Amino acid sequence: MTTATEVSVRARIADEIRRRQRFVLSSHVRPDGDAIGSQLAMAFALWQLGKEVRLLNHDAPPTPMMVFPGVPKIEVASRIEDPGDAVIVMECGELSRTGVEGFERGFVINIDHHLGNTGYGTLNWFDTSAAACGEMVFDLVRELGVELTREIATHVYIAILTDTGAFHYSNISARTFDICRQCVEAGIDPPGIAGAIYDSNSLGRLKLFGAVMSKMELDSSGHVATVYVDQQLARDCGGTYEDTEGIVNLPLTVKDIDAVAFFKEAGPDDWRVSMRSKGEVDVNAIAKQFGGGGHKNASGCNASGTFEELKLKFQRLLLQQIEASRKTQT
Ligand code: AMP
Ligand code: MN
Predict the structure, then answer these.
(1) What 3 state SS string does the chain have?
(2) Where residue 330 falls among pLDDT bands split at 50, 70, 90?
(3) Averaged over 214-239, what is the pLDDT?
């Protein structure tokens, strides 16, 4: 639901955008579809208004995203000398999560839907009810009075499609579909977009999926799955860590599996953990305990220890969340 305060913050952001000319758009490290889609939808809207736009992230976009309009224009850097007239940071809970130094000197507009956003901007607009940050960007684009072009609509749709786990997560609302309807009316190609994102695997990636999935374990309840990848496994399959993007969602396709943790070896006894869940099972609560964050059904964090230790720890924590979600339902 959009509140009156949110409407006035959005109007204020629109005013500040109209008054300024040079923009830098950024998002979180290792940008996902919502990060890229939100940035590009905003960029195309600003270009329509005759503004100058730089797109700058700490990491390159996921390779499948490179086919979409404007994505190759994104610069990769970890510092910026000139933050322009305004920096618009989208889909990022903390300024440090951009991984870019120098934004703190600028006029920062913070637009986000993550729980626990730290309010780091000069102007801050959060809406945790938005299924994707792209929904918020859509509203802002409308507020700015620009035409919903095919490019803008494509990027809003990419943001929503990817951040809802292809319409799986529980934060989808009637508004989500209303926005998607308008995107379709603007001429987007939903099967083409889904195909470019989900059906453009390399053979190495599919083999890596197979290798990772064959090592999947279930806890004693049968409701919690754990999977992992280390450097050795990736090398053996001729794949890269980037190729593991999306694997975390596979265990949830099993009816009885309600939560999954995917461990990626980042260094010796250092793991990056991605979690996913169904319905009311809250994985964000666990990610926060480890200094990470995200959403109820999709969150991430880093954790140190051996894989066996962490596997048991996360199995226990995930089962606790499953049990807590059952209590709230009865
Ligand atoms: P991932 O598992 O990396 O695909 O991330 C799932 C969701 O959690 C995304 O919305 C991320 O932005 C968020 N997330 C992942 N890692 C972190 C972190 N360390 N801090 C805050 N949010 C995170
Ligand atoms: Mn998001």
Answers:
(1) CCCHHHHHHHHHHHHHHHHCCEEEEECCCCCCHHHHHHHHHHHHHHHHCCCEEEEEECCCCCHHHHHCCCHHHCEECCECCCCCCEEEEECCCCHHHHCCECHHHCCEEEEECCCCCCCCCCEEEECCCCCCHHHHHHHHHHHCCCCCCHHHHHHHHHHHHHHCCCCCCCCCCHHHHHHHHHHHHCCCCHHHHHHHHHCCCCHHHHHHHHHHHHCCEECCCCCEEEEEECHHHHHHHCCCHHHHCCHHHHHHHCCCCCEEEEEEEEECCEEEEEEEECCCCCCHHHHHHCCCEECCCEEEEEEECCHHHHHHHHHHHHHHHHHHHHHHHC
(2) low
(3) 93
pLDDT in tens, 37-72: 999 999 999 999 999 999 999 999 999 999 999 999
Distance in Å, CA 32 to ligand 1 centroid:
9
Give the residue, out of 299, 302, 318, with the most ligand 1 atoms within 8 A of its beta carbon, to mutate for a pocket test.
299
The whole-model pTM stands at 0.89
Give the position, in ligand 1's atom list, of the atom nearest the Cα of 274.
Answer: 2
The CB of 294 under 6 Å from ligand 1? The reply is: yes
Low-confidence winner among 5-14, 74-83, 178-187 (lowest mean pLDDT): 5-14
